[in-house]
Amino acid sequence: KNSVLVIGAGLAGVEAAYQLSKRNIPVELAEMRPLRSSPAHHTDLFAELVCSNSFRAANVENAVGLLKEEMRRLDSLIMQGADKHRVPAGGALAVDRTSFSQWITDKMTNNPFITIVHEEVTTIPTDRLCIIATGPLTDGAMAEQIQQLTGEAYFHFHDAAAPIVTFDSLDMTKIYRAARYNKGGADYLNCPFTKDEYEIFWKNLITAECAELHEFEKDDTVFEGCMPIEVMAGRGMETMRFGPLKPVGLPLPETQEIPYAVVQLRQDNSKGTLYNIVGFQTHLKFPEQKRVFSLIPGLEKAEFVRYGVMHRNSYINSPAVLLPTLQYKENPYLFFAGQLTGVEGYLESAAMGLLAGINAAQLYMNKDCIRFSSQTAIGGLSHYISHHPNTNFQPMNINFGIIEPLGVKKKMKKKEKNMFLAQRALQEIDTIKGKI
Ligand code: FAD
Hints:
Layout: E1 4-7, H1 11-21, E2 27-30, E3 54-57, H2 63-73, H3 77-84, E4 86-87, E5 92-95, H4 97-109, E6 114-117, E7 130-132, H5 140-150, E8 155-161, E9 164-166, E10 176-178, E11 188-193, H6 195-207, H7 229-234, E12 261-267, E13 274-277, H8 286-293, E14 304-306, E15 309-316, H9 318-321, E16 327-328, E17 331-336, H10 346-364, H11 377-387, H12 414-433
Parallel strand pairs: 1-2, 1-7, 2-6, 7-17
Antiparallel strand pairs: 3-5, 4-5, 8-15, 9-13, 9-14, 10-11, 11-12, 12-13, 16-17
The protein binds flavin-adenine dinucleotide.
């Protein structure tokens, strides 16, 4: 067919459709609502914000602020809508959710290059350019199709992620590198507890406040083998010491004594700028995670780039199946976009729609696909999801830990360093913008 099929008119799908249409490319945009809805959507509008009305921090010294500015410069429809329908929210960009989604819906409906089809797409076409942007609650026939395409093991229905912290924010005077029984080098960072420290940590953990589960997530049984750390702690003070906090085989380097308990941090990206807290998948509220996990020795000032979550979230194992252009490795005419690719968040999902839209347009025009380097926020995300080394790939928010470091030795304040990173990223965006 002559048009590009975009499946799903969520944040990613509308952004992709807009990027194609502004390049005069005909688009068929398929959306199953109102015929069928997800358990989280409540309206028939496109780009519905299913929960918060915030797009998070606005300034570019913050990674999500940089992502917004990159998207603005690449003429993002989601950013146009967000800026137009902004409501006061301090340093954050929040929107009037109804007028935002109504405006986006009108933009799609009145676009001469876009044909809206209200149907649930149940097969993935092989004879045309297609972008799959069916979101984190993809299920039914489409989920089966994606599973068949990628292989069962490459499609996840749940997110059970431990928090991720930046290496720079750790107190390495308290932490030591070692692998249990010296097996496999010294890959882990180990945070040793004294008995007193452990008891304080345990008491805080069992009394910390948990997040409310969505109604549709309450009867999920899938997490049995992957217990939240606070539930394990609730079984008794010693339980964690025989589970993820067991200290055996991890002697302190100076005294060779075995600590009372040890929390291990595992490298999370190839650059070694991010570490996840092993076994700490959790339902705790985000501020509670910060308060309680900062009691772990060495994590007192830890910067959390992603908090632990356990919720329903469909996503593909992108490192195995996607290129950084968001093309499916085995079929370059098939793209994935949005949260389905393993990014997390409204903006991140829309950014992956923008990238898929630009690249589908490039292919349509017989041009090379664009690769943003990981010096940019968009490239940092697309590189993270397509190159993640960890077998346990979990979705990721934008943060400076996944953007290429500056590579200068000079000690700089965080704000100053982030400003340089942002300037460098925006320069690359402006250069790419001139070419597409
Ligand atoms: P969606 O916006 O969900 O869009 C997917 C679209 O595809 C939907 O319109 C759906 O109806 C349609 N569709 C699905 N299957 C088919 C099919 N087979 N055929 C045709 N159409 C189909 N992120 C934040 O930043 N802040 C939050 O507060 C937040 N809260 C969240 C709360 C919940 C319950 C969930 C599940 C996620 C939340 N997220 C949040 C994460 C994420 O940012 C949003 O889910 C975001 O909407 C993802 O964008 P998307 O375009 O990938 O998917």
